[in-house]
Amino acid sequence: MALDLIADRLQRHEAFRGLESEQIERIAREAERLIFRNGQKMLEAGCDGDGAIVIISGYATALADPELDVEAYEIEAGAMLGEAAMLSEHQFRVTVVAAGDVKAVRINRSTLLAHMQEDPTLAEHFFCRVVSRLQRVAVELRLIDERLAAVSQPASHAAATG
Is residue 106 within 8 Å of 32, Cβ to Cβ? Predict the structure, then answer.
């Protein structure tokens, strides 16, 4: 797999946006190259992850999980799987299998953490990305809470006055 293609796939993800090209290239260079054959599991629900997988070429399928109320869906080239496992201990929630041959890279947590120790700006970058995401989730949860409150208020008000 060409280093520039891997770097390009990484730069498209929010987690890597804003990094210096040298930082991206180093991560791309040290990423573990993988080839998955048709039907081979790329991630397995319930298993601990040690890194994120970025699909360089090919397609994958996330299998349905009735317990999580998740239907099967297709995952295209460029997608990142198990992003949280790249930064911290994480257990995968869905099983993903290759749909045909898939070329991918794994960004191992241990390798990325070593990079962060050597380059504190990298650690700061990922910290800021995680904080930003958590802030967005908090806003989304607040909006959901407000919508639920608005929907339930008329019903409870009508019951109280009726």
Answer: yes
Nearest to 21 by CA among 7, 1, 3, 33: 7
Q: What are phi and psi of 56, to 5 degrees?
A: -85, -45
What's the domain range around 127?
A: 3-154
For the stretch 65-77, what's the b/e string if a residue is b when 16 or more beta carbons lie within 10 angstroms of its beta carbon? eeeeeeeeeebee
116: CATH: 2.60.120.10
Confidence (pTM): 0.78
d(CA 70, CA 61): 12
pLDDT digits (tens, 9 = 90+) for 64-80: 888 878 899 999 999 99
Residue 159 lies in a domain: no
The angle formed by the CA atoms of residues 79, 83 and 86, to the nearest 5 degrees, is 130
For residues 143 and 44, the answer to whether their CB atoms sit within 8 Å is no
Would you say residue 162 lies in a domain? no
Q: What gap in Å lies between CA 38 and CA 161, rounded to an integer?
A: 62
Distance from the first to the final alpha carbon of the chain: 69
> pLDDT tens across 10-41, in order?
988 888 988 999 999 999 999 999 999 999 99
